[in-house]
Give the backbone structure.
Amino acid sequence: MPGFDLHVHTTASDGACSSAEIIRLAADIGLEGIAITDHDTTQGLAGADEMARAAGITVIPGVELSTDFDGREIHILGYYLNDELEMVQDKLTGMQNSRLKRICRMVERINRLGYKLSVCDVLALSGRGSVGRPHIARAMLEKGHVRTLQEAFQRFIGHGKPAYVPRDKFSPGEAVHFILAAGGIPVMAHPGLSKANSLIAPLAEQGLAGIEVYHPDHSPAAEMKFLQLARDHHLLATGGSDFHGINKSTSFALGCRTVDKQVVAEMAAWRKRR
Ligand code: AMP
Ligand code: ZN
Ligand code: FE
Ligand code: FE
């Protein structure tokens, strides 16, 4: 399976596999490269370069930022962010803290609804990584409060459900500016899920470099439409599997969506032009 999978989660956020496991798996299935794009953290990239070299594949550093647009969640991918910059570290640390506080409030709500769960149960699953709702869902599943992860979202922690607590987020424009300031390439993740096509043109004006055309949640027709939108706005057309390991369904298998190395070359050219 040649090509590059530009959207992969690890245990540094809500993925089920470590970077080491994913890099090995990627090499085994013949991928040329992957981008590690954890939610609001770059911790999963520690040591990834050496592991990638040993495995004979390329690892592109990335991050997936959650943003808020009128109460809707829009994800913005950032590739090649310089995470050694102090302002980047500060911002990402702030996001980890706000995630942790929010998890505490959601657990309180779940308790008030009559279900026993502790913050430790949730943190045992997230480890030192970016903690999120999927960890709560898994903890509830393990406690027997729900039968599926989906049920946890539908009954408790999905947007607008009784244990849902929002958290402070960037606006999509702020995320684009942040990624640019950090030397990265901002790309709108899975526009088909975000349902924010009207945002593409104004964000492109603000420096958005690409849209994720190829994603397992996009139908072939949607991919054609997003490819056309990318062309209309002179944006990179990226893609990836959004692999989360067993935390998500098999349609999100590693490498199920890839782009060829031409796209990676276009990303390099985009960086050179800046
Ligand atoms: P968080 O960043 O903590 O708000 O969690 C968001 C993540 O939860 C998303 O990236 C999805 O992976 C997952 N998620 C959100 N809504 C659902 C849902 N209805 N069913 C399953 N997973 C979901
Ligand atoms: Zn996720
Ligand atoms: Fe996403
Ligand atoms: Fe993702």
Remarks:
- The pocket of fe (iii) ion (ligand 3) is lined by residues 64, 75, 189-190 (CB under 6 Å).
